[in-house]
Amino acid sequence: MAGDSDITVDLEGESLDPRAVADAITQVENLVQSLSPGSSARLVLTDLRGGSAHISMSVTGVSVDTVHDGIEALRAASVLPQGWRRESLQAVANLGDVIGMRGVDSISLKLGQAVSAIDRVIQENAQSALEPSARSLGSVRGMLYRYTNDVSRNRRSAGLRNAHSGDTLDLRFSADIAPLIREHLETEVEVWGEIERDATGRIVHLSVEGIEAVPLSDPQARDGRGLLGSDWTGGVDPVEWVRSQRG
């Protein structure tokens, strides 16, 4: 595969939904861009044939070996492939959804001289790698920008934009905490509680145990690494401490 820089997307089937072609191109572009530092990768459409769709693109800024090796790693297990990020996993999971669109029986990527089929195993492993896999106690500082109260499901959530990384994360909280969340909307806050991260190390969500506004003069804290001293839980296991706070 060395030296090859082409990706061909093959959608097999009949009477294909045009949106399947568009979605496949978009997700391949998302995957390639996610593997490029500074999003410097560039794709150029070089061939497009109808019937069953065959879309060829030349790639610069990213090795197609990295794409192929990552997909094959996901075929074997739910992992974060070397050189991949959360956006890479999400793009592959989304590619799997194209199979469910009208007329699409299968999808595969020709990466240089190798072919990788995007099947349900790969999609499920990518999706699984996106799910929370590690828990810890910590705090995160950022802008609180969204509040949702789904009464029918008894589910409350809010959105926080991490001041350190710029990532957005989901906040979960009890009815007792909800008034404080509403009070601090559109405010920079610090929230603390149980943090869950995915295989990439990114925070997926935080179960809020406390929240307070951040004074403008305060220096910015980092995203939950070592912010809480070892005696914060009084020697109790962090997970058990959070559970005890929930009552």
* Helix-strand makeup class: alpha+beta
- What strand order characterises the main sheet? 2-3-1-4-5
Number of strands: 10
Task: Give the helices and strands as they follow along the chain.
Answer: EHEEHHEEHEEEHEEH
The amount of helix comes to 25-40%
What is the 3D form?
elongated
Mean pLDDT: 83
Segments where pLDDT lies below 50 for 5+ residues?
225-232
CATH topology of the largest domain: Alpha-Beta Plaits
Oligomeric state of this protein: single chain
- Radius of gyration in whole Å, from Cα? 22 Å
Total domain modules: 2
CATH hierarchy, class of the largest domain: Alpha Beta
Distance linking N and C termini: 57 Å
Strand content: 35-45%
Describe this structure in words.
It is a single chain. A five-stranded antiparallel beta sheet has the order 2-3-1-4-5, with helices on one face. The chain has a five-stranded mixed barrel with strand order 6-7-8-10-9. It contains six helices and ten strands, in the order E-H-E-E-H-H-E-E-H-E-E-E-H-E-E-H. Helix content is 28%, strand content 36%. It has 247 residues and is α+β, with helices and mostly antiparallel strands. The protein folds into two domains: 125 residues, Alpha-Beta Plaits, CATH 3.30.70; 113 residues, OB fold (Dihydrolipoamide Acetyltransferase, E2P), CATH 2.40.50. About 3% of the residues have low confidence. The longest helix has 17 residues.
Quick recap:
With 247 residues, the chain is α+β, with helices and mostly antiparallel strands. The chain has helices at residues 18-34, 64-76, 86-97, 120-130, 178-183, 238-246; strands at 6-13, 42-49, 53-60, 104-111, 114-117, 134-150, 155-162, 168-172, 187-197, 203-213. The chain has six helices and ten strands; from the N terminus they run E-H-E-E-H-H-E-E-H-E-E-E-H-E-E-H.
